[in-house]
């Protein structure tokens, strides 16, 4: 089983992901939100690339949908919620469909559609993701959403933690140089917040006083589900 990493949504190439199991990570904050919403009873999440597409989907029956997302970390005008996991509580999302568009995360998901499987991961479900990937018994590509097409420290260390968890389950693993580096970074920086404070996106979130979001998204293994993208939407396949 081979493990590789793609460093941003803009760097995804079909020949790198075709017939492989892809894990999309945007821990600050899109994939953390998706995992949280589904864990709290959301029926499905429909990721889209642009605002007009999101508005068009919900116009058919507004009562069954929630509009969520951001542009450059800020809530989109006219949307119900931004990209904070704390907004997607059970009483809000239960039995609803979340239509979501974000700057980086939803782009990474949509750009990965030629993969064999697309799983949604973050720090908060890392162990569950690792177990699921090992069970699929397929070559793995971890897609870091990145930040505006650039490498992101937060997604990279999250990938390293997930690789460590995979390697704790099986030793039948061959890591690429970049995957080996991600694991090394995590092994030497296990306090996540103390390391990702150097990330550009971390500083943006701090400036917006979203400290609780940072603390939540940096927690390890507080959720046991692994959402999957399939046929245009993300669900919890049991």
Can you offer a commentary on this structure?
Belongs to the ComB family. This is Probable 2-phosphosulfolactate phosphatase. By secondary structure, the protein is α/β, with parallel strands linked by helices. It has one domain (2-229): Alpha-Beta Complex (putative 2-phosphosulfolactate phosphatase). It has helices spanning 14-17, 30-39, 51-58, 90-93, 105-110, 126-136, 153-169, 177-187, 192-196, 200-207, 211-217, and strands spanning 2-6, 21-25, 44-47, 65-71, 74-75, 97-101, 117-121, 140-144, 174-175, 228-230, 233-235. The strands form 2 sheets. A 7-stranded mixed sheet has the order 9-1-8-2-7-10-11. Strands 3-6-4-5 form a 4-stranded mixed sheet, with helices on both faces. Helix 6 (126-136) packs across helix 7 and helix 7 (153-169) crosses helix 8 (177-187).
């Amino acid at each position: 089983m081979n493990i590789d990493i793609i460093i941003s949504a803009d760097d995804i190439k079909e020949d790198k992901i075709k017939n492989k199991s892809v894990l999309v990570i945007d821990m600050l904050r899109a994939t953390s939100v998706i995992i949280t919403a589904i864990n709290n009873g959301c029926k499905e999440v429909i990721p889209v690339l642009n605002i007009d597409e999101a508005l068009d989907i919900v116009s058919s029956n507004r009562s069954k949908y929630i509009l969520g997302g951001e542009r450059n970390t800020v809530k989109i005008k006219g949307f119900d919620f931004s990209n904070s996991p704390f907004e997607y509580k059970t009483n809000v999302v239960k039995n609803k469909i979340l239509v979501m568009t974000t700057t980086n995360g939803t782009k990474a998901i949509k750009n990965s559609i030629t993969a064999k499987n697309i799983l949604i991961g973050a720090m908060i479900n890392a162990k569950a993701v690792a177990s699921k990937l090992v069970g699929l018994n397929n070559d793995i590509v971890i897609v870091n959403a990145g930040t505006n097409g650039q490498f992101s420290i937060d997604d990279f260390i999250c990938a390293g933690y997930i690789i460590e968890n995979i390697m704790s389950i099986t030793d039948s693993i061959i890591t690429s140089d970049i995957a080996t580096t991600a694991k090394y970074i995590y092994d030497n920086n296990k306090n996540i917040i103390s390391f990702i404070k150097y990330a550009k996106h971390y500083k943006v979130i701090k400036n917006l006083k979203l400290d609780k979001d940072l603390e939540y998204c940096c927690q390890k293994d507080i959720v046991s589900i692994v959402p999957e993208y399939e046929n245009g939407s993300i669900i919890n396949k049991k």
